[in-house]
Amino acid sequence: MKAITANRLRDGVVVFLGADAAWVEAFADAALFAAADADAALAAAKAQAEGEQFGVDVYAFDVETENGVPVPVKMRERIRALGPSVRLDLGKQAAA
């Protein structure tokens, strides 16, 4: 599976493409795509983000399931999904 991410242009916040093609801040709300469908979804997301001047650095990344929960495969995307790794009282992990 794959998910699509970007940085919101107005404030730099990490966002993920949601199921209804809207950008969401929580990885839990991100749409997941089969590898075969990810390229088309990524192309559409890039066009949308550029056309709306909404986001930059739009790319797809691998997702796996751990204990029934989707999680990013690589550490970079795990950090982007949770927030800063130096303090657990900051970022998205502080709200959990």
From TrEMBL:
Short name of one Pfam family: DUF2849
Record's protein name: DUF2849 domain-containing protein
